[in-house]
């Protein structure tokens, strides 16, 4: 999954390189984009995730409309949503947990989504920090559920991560950029090539 898409060109390029999913940040972030971008990518035949930050799972009507119209395929909840909050408001969806210790790992099974994406913890930013999760915590998470992994992955480390942990899904944003929200096409191509290889 290539996340933090903010231009049609970057969305199409990620698809052409073989990404499986592109993600759009629809909550507060330096990579936040407007739903209008997703309408512009209506013809781009790739799975699309809308990344939202809520307290209780309630979606902004404009985002719910994207889901209802099939313009996005899934909601990625990246806020303080608790188990039970999300499924009343969006389907399909999955939850993100920022992992800082073993207590967070134990929360993975409490969510009702088919997968939980784990990301590096930051006290001041939700995702896109470029920070990685300590390897011992990734190993513990792998024992809880199929591994969906985000946090500081780029061309320089994705092969090692695949060889060590064999994640089912890899989510990348900040390490594939020229600047926040603007993808470096060479890095995107190399990243996907390494994964597919």
What's the quick description here?
With 197 residues, the chain is an alpha/beta fold. It contains seven helices and nine strands.
Structural description of this entry:
By secondary structure, the chain is of the alpha/beta class. It contains 7 helices and 9 strands. The strands form 2 sheets. It has a 7-stranded parallel beta sheet. Strands 8-9 form a two-stranded antiparallel ribbon.
What order do the helices and strands come in, and which of them pair?
Elements: H1 8-17, E1 21-25, H2 35-40, E2 47-52, H3 61-68, E3 74-77, E4 93-99, H4 102-106, E5 116-120, H5 135-144, E6 148-150, H6 158-165, E7 169-171, E8 177-179, E9 182-183, H7 185-196
Helix pairs in contact: 1-7
Query: What is the overall silhouette?
Result: globular
Largest sheet: 7 strands, parallel
Radius of gyration from the alpha-carbon trace, in angstroms: 16 Å
Gap between N and C termini: 16 Å
Q: DSSP helix count?
A: 7
Indicate the mean pLDDT.
93
H and E order: HEHEHEEHEHEHEEEH
| β-strand number | 9
Share of helix, binned: 25-40%
Q: Main attributes?
A:
197 residues, alpha/beta, 7-stranded parallel sheet, two-stranded antiparallel ribbon, 9 strands
